[in-house]
């Protein structure tokens, strides 16, 4: 069966005066997907969401909903609903009245509206507080009322702009799982804006990473984490060692590069590279393997000796700083359980074996 595209942006640019907030963004979001737009503050996430909702119109390009260009269609005529970070509840209305508001506007029959409001409040697990007003609710409850209000119309697409931003960490984590579960039950397409990489990784089917108005990479969480296509993406999501390198050769995505004082290593190439090119080798701290000199080598594809400069105890993990060459210092992360198992009782000044798999290392040029 052909996939159904619910939301599509075709080379969309949005300028405010001479400032480009969204820069030539193309994107397809499938029916029923949980899609996160992730990026630092000011990168254009909210503007992208507002372009989909119809609160902004593109300077160039086209927004398509359910396969049709929406042109200048106003927000209330688009089959999308938005949950704002501020929740935007009406303070003088009760919870039930807040949730029913959209149905009243649409002149839905009273009985039917009451049933749908009850269903929506059940879904967000707030069945018993329909008579209260927003100031009598906790932050988490207000957040759920805002959600109930957005889903009561059963929109095809729900846009969520940092909806968990105002919650404390514990509640935020609980709500992340609840939202994901709710989305499964409703089978509505969710587009979720966040600057929190962990939140995006936990909740999304796919993530679009933005910076300075550009959409840099789109992929499943594991793709974005394991196969970043740029320094920005590798750096924004998780921790990474960046090592300056020179490309020696490249064949079908597998490159050989030189680091430090001509140590040769193999790595996957994110983009086309050619011999002689200066680039960056990226490798995650938990993908590097340490061992005693003389022990059997696990990953013989990249295999060096190094000197431990520091071993920092972090509770569940230990962070080793290991010098591979005068100009190359890498950070290596081990869960303490595994470190004990592997007898990694190294200290400052010890010479050790260091290795990693070529498939864990990426050559980046941007
Ligand atoms: P945050 O996470 O801080 O909300 P964001 O990624 O959602 O950031 P946007 O709100 O989309 O970023 O803003 C992108 C850029 O566009 C910012 O530099 C912002 O100042 C600018 N911008 C947004 N709206 C307007 C406007 N109406 N007029 C002028 N500039 C604007």
Describe the protein's topology.
Elements: E1 5-16, E2 19-30, E3 34-38, H1 45-53, E4 60-65, E5 68-69, E6 80-83, H2 95-105, H3 110-123, H4 139-151, E7 157-161, H5 169-186, E8 189-194, H6 197-203, E9 206-211, E10 214-219, H7 221-226, H8 231-236, E11 241-251, E12 254-259, E13 263-269, E14 278-283, E15 289-291, E16 302-313, E17 317-325, E18 328-335, H9 336-341, E19 351-356, E20 361-364
Parallel strand pairs: 3-8, 3-9, 6-7, 7-8, 13-20
Antiparallel strand pairs: 1-2, 1-4, 4-5, 9-10, 11-12, 11-14, 12-13, 14-20, 15-19, 16-17, 16-19, 17-18
The chain binds adenosine-5'-triphosphate (ATP).
| DSSP summary: helix tally | 9
Strand element count: 20
Order of helices and strands: EEEHEEEHHHEHEHEEHHEEEEEEEEHEE
The secondary structure category is alpha+beta
The largest sheet has its strands arranged as 6-7-8-3-9-10
Helix content: 10-25%
Strand content: 35-45%
Backbone CA Rg: 25 Å
Uncertain regions spanning at least 5 consecutive residues: none
Could you tell me the mean pLDDT? 88
Termini, distance in Å?
Answer: 37 Å
């Amino acid at each position: 069966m052909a996939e159904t595209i619910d939301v599509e942006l075709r080379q969309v640019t949005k300028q405010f005066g001479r400032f480009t907030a969204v820069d030539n963004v193309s994107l397809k979001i499938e029916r029923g997907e949980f899609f996160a737009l992730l990026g630092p503050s000011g990168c254009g996430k909210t503007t992208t969401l507002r372009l989909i909702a119809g609160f902004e119109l593109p300077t160039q390009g086209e927004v398509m909903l359910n396969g049709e260009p929406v042109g200048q269609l106003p927000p209330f005529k688009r089959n999308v609903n938005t949950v704002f970070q501020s929740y935007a509840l009406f303070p003088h209305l009760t919870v039930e009245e807040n949730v029913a508001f959209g149905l009243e506007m649409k002149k839905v029959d009273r009985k039917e509206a009451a049933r749908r409001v009850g269903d929506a409040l059940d879904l967000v697990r707030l069945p018993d507080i329909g008579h209260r007003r927003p100031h009598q609710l906790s932050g988490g409850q207000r957040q759920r009322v805002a959600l109930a209000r957005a889903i009561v119309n059963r929109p095809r697409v729900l846009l969520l702009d940092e909806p968990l931003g105002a919650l404390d960490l514990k509640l935020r984590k609980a709500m992340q799982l609840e939202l994901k579960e709710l989305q499964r039950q409703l089978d509505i397409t969710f587009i979720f804006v966040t600057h929190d990489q962990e939140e995006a990784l936990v909740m999304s089917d796919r993530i679009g990473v933005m910076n300075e108005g550009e959409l840099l990479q789109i992929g499943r969480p594991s793709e974005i984490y394991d196969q970043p296509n740029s320094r920005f993406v590798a750096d924004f999501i998780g921790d990474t060692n960046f090592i300056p390198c020179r490309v020696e050769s490249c064949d079908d995505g597998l490159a050989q590069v030189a680091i430090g004082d001509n140590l040769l290593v193999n790595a996957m190439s994110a983009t086309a590279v050619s011999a002689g090119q200066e680039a960056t080798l990226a490798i995650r701290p938990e993908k590097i393997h340490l061992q005693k000199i003389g022990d059997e080598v696990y990953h013989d594809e990249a295999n060096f000796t190094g000197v431990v400069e520091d071993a920092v105890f972090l509770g569940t993990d230990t962070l080793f700083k290991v010098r591979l060459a005068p100009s190359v210092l890498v950070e290596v992360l081990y869960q303490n359980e595994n470190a004990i198992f592997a007898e990694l009782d190294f200290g400052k000044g010890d010479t050790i074996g260091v290795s990693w798999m070529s498939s864990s290392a990426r050559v980046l040029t941007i």
